[in-house]
Design goal:
This protein is mainly alpha-helical. The longest helix has 48 residues. It is elongated, with a radius of gyration of 22 Å.
Length: 169
């Protein structure tokens, strides 16, 4: 008997495999193909590649495997459950952290450009007012994609490990 939850899972799988995954793959290919364009370079290419790679693994591999395990179409083999848990633990924390990382870097870029543009006229009006700005003071650390990325890798490994361990409880 087909239950409503199985129908919902099947509809979700069809939408993922036939709509979302191909469109994400096409977008990713176009993005990589035009990576030397100045508009793409400004959008932090490495961060976007990390996000898209995790999303593609999630859409093409993890979700169909989870659907097959959920519906009982394949037996709950220990290896397949292990693979599903590993992919789940790799994809979700990675997607969340890279999206947050991307928005943080955008925030820093916007503030850096705004502060540099406003710095000249504020110095003309009042040369004594040398306001300390967090973003400009930490441009080589918190505003640097590489510096933030290295630290986020440690957070990512910790979160993925915790999620993987908790997936068995």
């Amino acid at each position: 008997m087909i239950t409503p939850s199985i129908l919902l899972a099947l509809a979700s799988l069809v939408a993922t495999l036939f709509i979302a995954a191909p469109s994400m793959s096409g977008y990713f290919w176009r993005y990589v193909f035009f990576k030397d364009c100045i508009y793409i370079r400004q959008r932090h290419f490495n961060v976007v590649v990390a996000i898209e790679s995790l999303l593609l693994v999630l859409a093409w591999v993890e979700r169909p495997l989870a659907f097959l395990l959920y519906t009982g179409e394949i037996t709950k083999n220990g290896v397949l459950v292990y693979i599903d848990n590993v992919l789940w633990s790799i994809c979700y924390p990675g997607i969340v952290l890279t999206v947050c990382w991307r928005y943080w870097i955008f925030y820093c870029d916007v503030n850096i450009h705004q502060n540099k543009a406003n710095k000249t006229w504020t110095e003309i009006i009042n040369p004594i007012s040398n306001k300390a700005d967090f973003v400009l003071e930490h441009i080589s650390t918190y505003g640097n994609t590489r510096w933030c990325g290295i630290r986020l890798i440690f957070i990512y490994v910790a979160l993925a490990t915790i999620q993987f361990v908790l997936s068995y409880y």
